[in-house]
Design brief:
Blueprint lengths: L6 H13 L2 H7 L4 H15 L4 E2 L6 E2 L1 H29 L4 E7 L8 H8 L6 E7 L3 H7 L5 E6 L8 E9 L1 E6 L13 H4 L4 E4 L19 E4 L2 H9 L5 E4 L4 H6 L2 E4 L8 E8 L5 H11 L17
Parallel strand pairs: 3-4, 3-5, 8-9
Antiparallel strand pairs: 1-2, 5-12, 6-12, 7-10, 7-11
Length: 309
């Protein structure tokens, strides 16, 4: 069955949108600008629609063109995943491994394992992707990543997943030393905390229900992109909230953040390695075994309570 929408045409639309111009897309795709223009015009003719409005100084996507681009990006991702998995089956070693990590732990905790992997000399590209809250499981479920480091159990979706416990991340309620709550009597009641904005790391989930742990009803929020930014916002006195204790030990020691006891304590979060049960790529399994025994991770996650002595 013939279709006017080709992978190549979608790549052209994507490149134009990301680069901001036909010329920028041509440079990225190693084509002449006229070839980019021809691809767009051919697509418009075949679909009998106008993808770009050329009435202004600069061509802009029409509503139909924007819809085509947004939906087309899902097809591009699916095509990329198909190519990746096909090569994986043919070669044994994956050509690329995408490791997602929960923002509760820093990216640096993965670096020793990646360095050891490089010593193997195998031609596998490693991509490290940060996710927040349910975004970790969402990325794995949708196969945007091949494995997750630091997946929690609270937002785990249904499906055939294999997990391995890494430990628990404890939390402290922290405020800047200059914040009014820093000198307030303890334990802090919820009604007092709710008077001040909460710093929130935005959940990166695209399809699973997002999380919003630690937010009180009617409390104003300052939303940032990840835990690093949340820590910085709280250290600047712009918000309050729960933070993973291992991530702020230095700030607590210096006194730029102050830990406060509250009426309702927050339980530690159990974090895990996670992957699709049927995925057995060589690079994936190497990292699975290596990270399962990684002493670097013990700096950021204490043993589960059942294993503590």
């Amino acid at each position: 069955m013939h279709t006017a929408i080709t992978i190549d045409a979608l790549k052209v639309l994507d490149a134009i949108d990301r680069k901001g111009s036909f010329a920028g897309a041509a440079a990225e795709l190693f084509r002449v600008p006229s070839a980019i223009s021809y691809t767009v015009q051919k697509l418009e003719e075949d679909l009998d629609i106008q993808v770009y409005d050329r009435s202004g100084h600069k061509a802009a996507l029409t509503p139909a063109g924007r819809y085509l681009l947004n939906e087309g990006r899902a097809l591009l991702e699916a095509a990329e995943n198909l190519a990746h998995t096909t090569r994986q089956v043919a070669q044994g070693w994956e050509t690329r491994l995408r490791i997602g990590f929960n923002s509760l732990i820093p990216a640096e905790c993965l670096f020793p394992a990646i360095e050891d992997f490089y010593q193997l000399g195998v031609p596998v590209d490693v991509q490290v992707v940060e996710e927040v809250f349910a975004g970790a499981w969402d990325a794995l479920q949708s196969r945007r990543v091949d494995m997750i480091v630091g997946a929690d159990q609270l937002s785990k979706p249904a499906g055939a997943f294999t997990t391995r416990a890494l430990g628990e991340v404890p939390f402290v309620f922290a405020v800047a030393a200059s914040h009014p709550l820093a000198s307030a009597p303890e334990p802090l009641p919820n009604s007092t905390i709710a008077q001040y904005p909460a710093a929130v790391a935005a959940d990166t989930s695209r399809s699973l229900p997002p999380g919003n742990a630690g937010i009180f009803q009617r409390q104003r929020t300052l939303t940032v992109s990840n835990i690093d930014q949340k820590i910085a916002a709280q250290e600047a006195g712009l918000g309050v909230g729960w933070l993973p204790e291992p991530r702020i030990r230095e700030q607590l020691a210096k006194g730029t953040l102050v830990a406060k006891s509250v009426e309702e304590a927050r339980a530690p979060i159990s974090i895990h390695l996670a992957k699709h049960s049927d995925d057995q790529g060589k690079a994936l399994m190497w990292f699975w075994d290596r990270l399962s025994q990684d002493s670097q991770l013990t700096q950021w996650a204490r043993p589960p309570r059942s294993e503590q002595t």
